[in-house]
Amino acid sequence: MTIRTDGVAGPVPETAPAILAARDLRVEFRGRGERAVARAVDGVDLDVRAGEIVALVGESGCGKTTLARTLLGLERPTAGQVTFEGRPLGHRARELKAYRRRVQLVLQDPNGSLNPRHTVYDAVAEGLRIHHGTTADERERVAAALSRAGLRPPERFFLRYPHEMSGGQRQRVVIAGALVLDPEVIVADEPVASLDASVRGEILDLLLRLRDDLGLSALVVTHDLGLAWNIADRVAVMYLGRIVEVGSVEEVLTAPRHPYTRALLSVLPEGRTGEPIILTGEPPDPTRIPGGCRFHARCQVLASGEAERAGIAERCRTEDPGILSAVPVAQVACHHATGQDGRGSPG
Amino acid sequence: MNYLEVNDLTVTYRTQGGPLPAVRGVDLTVEPGSKLGIAGESGCGKSTVALALLRLLPKSAVLGGRVLLDGEDVLTMKWGRLRAVRWAGASIVFQGAMHALNAVHRIGDQIAEPILLHGGVTRAEAARRAGELLEQVGLPAARAAAYPHELSGGQRQRVMIAMALACEPRLIVADEPTTALDVMIQAQILRLIDRLIGDHGISMVMISHDLSVLADTCDRLAVMYAGRVVEEGPAAEVFAAPRHPYGQALGAAFPRIGDPASRRNPRGLPGDPPDPAALPSGCSFRPRCGVAEERCAHVDPTLWPAGPGRRAACVRVLDGTVEAPAARTAPETAVEETR
Amino acid sequence: MSTTEPAATPEPRPAPRSPGPVDGPEGATASPRRLARQRRRRALARFWRDYRANRAGLFGLAGLALFVLVALAAPWLVQPADLSVTRAPGLPYQPPSLDYPLGTDNFGRSVLDLVIWGSRVSLLVGFLATLVSVTLGALIGIIAGHFGGATGTVLMRVTDWFLVLPTLVLAIALATVLSRSVFTIILAIGVTAWPTTARLVRAQTLAVEARPYIERARALGGGHLHIMMRHVLPNVMPLVLAQTTLLVASSIIMESTLAFLGLGDPTTVSWGGVLQDARNAGAVSSGVWWYLLPPGLAIALVALSFTLCGRALEGVLNPRLRDRS
Predict the structure, then answer these.
(1) Which CATH number is associated with domain C91-324?
(2) Which stretches of B166-265 are DSSP H helices?
(3) CATH superfamily of A17-102+183-347
(4) What is the dihedral of CA B179, B181, B186, B188, to 10 degrees?
(5) Which domains does chain B possess?
């Protein structure tokens, strides 16, 4: 494996230690029928380093939300572990509570993630009250969090109820509620998917500025590659429970190597170049992950016979390309791509 | 001859808090076989326009203006005629495919229902036709026996399209047809719509908040803001070089991957759309406009020529194209000229 | 247009329903506690405005207020000595007159006095029995809904078991086994009436638990107690409140039924007890309608008042019903 150093450097040095990491993480769900096991997350290594924004991209059902929930300790991994600052995450109530002061969640739907019976003040103060009880400086801290989230002057919003605000403002309240505990990492699950296009940019801008001003790390789960281009430093593309390509945003999005990433990028309507690669069908069920490369049944490289010509078609069908490691270099889990340029094969 | 012609359409909802103007004078035209996209934020009135085209609005809505479908005014049509038009003349594809399909009926029966009602055919003939339609939208005919919950989101959207095609309409109104779908499924559906429309020579009005999807699919594009069309023209041009500041902001919200200008620089539009019950004076976009001038508070611009086949409702466009006539009266004549 | 100005959040449009929070010096200087008080006051005002719009609810409230006032003022309205069987002030079976507006019973006691005095026990039993059953029901419902799994299943099985037991039979059994007192009646009603509340609260709890804000609270580090107290309880409270008012009505009827069946405390006067006395004294066959009618009407009216209030509350507090109007 050759380590690339020619990628466009992000604001975080590649040697910085991971603050939040997944190691060979697996999460399985068993349905009622007992026999079908859904491998929602099927072996993932991923690092989020201090001050870094990582975008986890994939279609619905690829396991990206399960992975995010597991990183937050909301789901228990079947195997593998989550580490925070190098220490494995414990799942006892007290350990989780301490952990959740430092890693915060922002959900997709700001309408649903605020209790309709709580005012903005209550919603933002909730985290403080959970961890510190009612403190004397509560009001100042709530006001500071609101203004950091762009709701100014904060006092004006204290008594509002969620239904009295616009979608963008609600999402800012959710973000303020996460910021009030001075977390180190924010995990955002589709933070702008339910917002209008005009508001989308505003919220992304806020996330980007929080990183710049507070050094916050973020894992942003999304199906939107444009979002990754807008704010992320690194991007990981997930397919059927596994990361199939990872690297800096510039590397992955401007020179994609995995056929799946290439297809995803080719169908984006904005600024299209070249013929769109429209994959047929939909991703298989996570209870029936195909053998060999999990993408081979829909792979356009295999279908076009290109893999055959390169002499790797058999490997595609039978040999699992393996799990990409968490080292901060561009990697791809594809026999064809790694065979072609001989770089970045998984370790 | 335009297949669809909307003249000065107004829709006002009667509410407890007084009348709420949702659509304030919209003109649209769709030529046979062409595709018109309507873009805008939620609450801009684009879905209301879509529903008004087939008079599907609730009773509390008061309509004004004309909606000419093949020369006939939908708004004054008799009930029986309207029913016929809703199937054979124009049909609608909704965004929430799960809720628009009846959960307790097999999808084949749901597709066959309008054919039975309008076609005067036998049950077996209708079922055969339903199977055909499923094949056309890329589902095996055998799936006709499935219930909606057994299908994925993309498959349900395909069923919706099959239903819309059932009575061979000449116009399809698609309201956010791909909003809840993943990019790959969205691409599949858009390509399907594109192919079917080309094959059958159908016209289409497509509503979306996603300017890039519309630019990619449609021939012409209309951008709506606060109940009015503020910019209109050939889709590619409106997306690539919008003239109205709102069109510019909306376009910039969708980054082009590889474009260094949008890298680590997300762009949006501050603020919220105005409350339809309390619109600002002058240009309704003024409070959020980055280039608003003093005169924008006094002039309420209407659509004005902004290049070949293009119109935009902004006083700055007015300056660039015509020697400053009185802004209030001039645009009416201008509208005539562009037709 | 680039958005480099962070504070670019303009004043949002006013909310359609409420006038929106008042800004100004009080908003800027108030402590959180004062803010909370302010907020509660405002919520209450809004609640009252919605409630006032319901005419039937206002009638119910007025009737309720009347009964409660009478019950509270009973010691001043009635001489307890006049309720004594041996030293009754009037003659037996006097029809309504100026001295005895509702006539007298078989001992010569004023029926009006009996009804006024009886309201105390009837309302007390109604309220306390409801409190017992609603507390029990809400607790079990929330716990079953929140924890689910084995805990939830076991709790719900117990609930179902109580639900299918004939309430009256169980109450009669309890009232016979335990000593005869008002509190036995309260316990008997309370223990038998909770399963419906539990079912209702559990269903609502499950609905609330599926909302994303529960996930957010959990991700913030909130434990079971936090989620149940801060999120689930406030969201099931409206339901519980409406259920309470409806239950009070049925509790009062239940109390009357038990007293009428002779299971009440014979030393106290209650509406059901008066009815039973009337029946025992043969008031039905001898046509002494003024002995039977007033307690019966009192029961019906009080139950009606509570039901009207309950329905109105349900309409105001359940947004889904409210939005439909």
Answers:
(1) 1.10.3720.10
(2) 183-200, 211-217, 235-240, 245-252
(3) P-loop containing nucleotide triphosphate hydrolases (3.40.50.300)
(4) -140
(5) 4-225 (3.40.50.300), 247-338 (no CATH)
The answer for residues whose C-beta is within 8 angstroms of residue C270's C-beta and 6 or more apart is C118, C121, C122, C125, C255, C256, C259, C264
> Cβ distance A72 to A187 under 8 Å?
yes
The whole-angstrom distance between A159's CA and the closest CA on chain C is 6
CB A284 within 8 A of CB A293: no
> Which chain B residue lies closest to C14 (C-alpha atoms)?
B275
Say yes or no: C25 contacts chain A, CB-CB below 8 A: no
**What is the rounded average pLDDT of the residues C19-42?**
59
Reply yes or no on whether the pLDDT at B38 is more than 90. yes
Q: Which helix (H) or strand (E) holds A22?
A: strand A18-30
Q: Is pLDDT at A8 greater than 60 in this prediction?
A: no
- State the Cα–Cα distance between residues B204 and B28, nearest whole angstrom: 12
| Entry pTM | 0.80
Give the nearest partner residue to B267 out of C2, C8, C12, using CB atoms: C2
CB contact under 8 A, B275 and C5: no
Q: Distance between CA atoms of A310 and A334, rounded to whole angstroms? A: 13
CB-based contact B229:B44 (threshold 8 Å): no
> Which one, of A185, A157, A149, A189, lies nearest residue A60 by Cα?
A189
Segments making up each domain of chain A, as ranges: 17-102+183-347, 113-182
Q: Phi-psi bin for B223: left (phi > 0), alpha (psi -120 to 50), beta?
A: beta
- Of the candidates B309, B252, B146, the one whose C-alpha atom is nearest the C-alpha of residue A201 is B252
> CA dist C113 to B235, C90, C99, C106, Å?
86, 12, 12, 14
Q: How much is the average pLDDT of B130-138?
A: 88
Least confident of A178-182, B106-110, B204-208, C187-191: C187-191
Q: Do A278 and B188 touch (CB under 8 A)?
A: yes
Rounded to an integer, what distance in angstroms lies between the CA atom of residue C216 and that of residue B301? 45
Q: Does C14 touch chain B (CB under 8 A)?
A: yes
Is the CB of C10 inside 8 Å of chain B's CB atoms?
A: yes
Token pair recorded at residue C97: 């007159």
* Per-residue pLDDT reduced to its tens digit, A128-149: 999 988 888 888 999 999 998 9
Residue among B185, B215, B267 whose CB faces A269 most closely = B215
Residue A94 burial (CB count, 10 A): 9
Using the Cβ of B191 and the Cβ atoms of chain A, whether some distance falls under 8 Å is answered with yes
Rounded to a whole number of angstroms, the distance from the CA of A207 to the nearest CA of chain C is 11
Residue C319 tokens, joined: 């947004």
Hey, which residues 151-180 in chain B have their CB within 8 Å of chain A? Answer: 152, 154
pLDDT at A347 over 70: no
Query: Domain boundaries in chain C?
Result: 91-324
Residue with tokens 């029946």: C279
- Residue B27: what pLDDT? 93
Give A227's contacts in chain B (Cβ within 8 Å): 266
Pairwise CA distance, residues C157 & C144, whole Å: 10
Structure letter (DSSP) for residue B76 = G
H/E stretch holding B98 reads helix B97-100
> H-helix or E-strand containing A24?
strand A18-30
- Average pLDDT of A201-211? 90
Contact B267 C10 (CB under 8 A): no
Task: Determine if residue A247 is left, alpha or beta; phi over 0 gives left, psi from -120 to 50 gives alpha, anything else beta.
Answer: left
Residues 150-179 of chain A with CB under 8 A from chain B are 166, 168-169
Residue from C40, C46, C55 nearest C317 by CA: C46
The amino acid sitting at B35 is K
